[in-house]
Design goal:
By secondary structure, the chain is α/β, with parallel strands linked by helices. The protein is built from 13 helices and 16 strands. Strands 3-2-1-4-5-7-11 form a seven-stranded parallel beta sheet, sandwiched between helices. Strands 8-10-12 form a three-stranded mixed beta sheet. The chain starts with a strand and ends with a strand.
């Protein structure tokens, strides 16, 4: 039975990765400081590593035998500058010591505030924001580490799963009960989204290719690239009622940013909603075939149901894109 260590198993992505790997027949070592959700701890083949990701001795002892390490650790938005690099370094040291493949869920920060529409693994990276510089450094350390096998799987903004903390649940869907879709605007710009159950399947398929992934690799997961107005219409059809588009109070956010670190971090990311962008996944397809791609209406229905906002039942499983 192959073994995977999932760092940050109780986080937004971790809660989806754990059952995906367990269902695929992997032994899952789920690192988390707090207890795992009950539905995860009951899964066959799942064992919790109850320690801090920075606590090297118990982490390394508990992770013995793993062939894959996934760094799903994600500091709060406003604490990236302080926590992201140490956590990434801890994951890298663990994978290197195990001789394991290190996998990192990447994002589009690396391409800077003027990112182009079409994003490929070869698109030049521009560190003109603090989060871009941190992401670039994390990935450079992975690429330059002697003897380390690693892969970055880059995706858009998360939605889906029972966790909270993404733009979708904290902003877009936060006022659906009031008949509003809060979209950061403008509505005619394409934005990259990643439905987490589909992304988790891509991680499983990549991990199964561990022997082919020597050295460092950068890959993209396309997910759903849609305009705000398309998302609005899809939610209207799903809920069968008219919805009004509302924007974020950007002037207020900018005004309060010097006093509120979390708002400052949000203001820095405004460009992601003003610059249309999508991810190209040809290189990923060459390795794993067609990635799972749940139709947008089904993915939205499942996402709202998981958040307790609307009933939802999956009528069809993930389909090829």
């Amino acid at each position: 039975m192959p073994t995977v260590v999932i760092l940050g198993a109780a986080g937004r992505l971790g809660q989806v990765l754990v059952p995906a790997f367990a269902a695929a027949g992997w032994r899952v070592l789920a690192q988390s400081r707090k207890p795992l959700p009950a539905e995860l701890s009951r899964l066959s083949g799942v064992q919790q590593l109850a320690c801090d990701a920075l606590d090297r001795a118990p982490l390394h002892a508990g992770a013995r035998g793993a062939s894959v390490v996934i760094n799903a650790l994600n500091p709060p938005y406003h604490q990236w500058e302080r926590q992201a690099l140490p956590l990434a370094q801890a994951a890298q040291v663990l994978a290197h010591g195990l001789g394991a493949l290190l996998m990192l869920p990447g994002n589009v920060y690396n391409y800077g505030s003027k990112l182009p529409v079409r994003l490929t693994p070869d698109t030049p990276e521009v560190g003109d924001t603090s989060k871009a510089r941190i992401r670039i450094e994390i990935e450079q350390r992975m690429a330059e580490a002697p003897g380390l096998d690693s892969v970055v799987l880059r995706a858009g903004d998360f939605f889906g799963g029972s966790g909270r903390g993404s733009w979708f649940d904290l902003v877009v869907a936060s006022r659906l009960d009031k008949g509003r879709v809060v979209y950061p605007r403008p509505l005619d710009r394409m934005h990259a989204w990643a439905y987490l159950p589909d992304l988790a399947q891509a991680f499983v398929k990549l991990a199964e290719q561990r022997e082919r992934l020597r050295g460092h690799h950068r890959l993209h997961f396309a997910g759903h690239a849609v305009e705000g107005q398309v998302l609005l219409k899809a939610l209207q059809a799903l809920l069968d009622k008219p919805l009004r588009a509302a924007s974020l109070p950007w002037p207020l956010i900018r005004l309060a940013a010097p006093l509120m670190p979390s708002w400052k971090a949000i203001a820095e990311m405004r460009y992601l909603w003003e610059r249309p962008h999508r991810l190209e996944e040809e290189a990923l397809r060459k390795l794993i075939g067609e990635p799972a791609h749940t139709p947008l209406p089904v993915a939205l229905s499942e996402s709202l149901a998981a958040l307790g906002m609307a009933p939802g039942r999956r009528e069809a499983g993930p389909q090829p894109a």
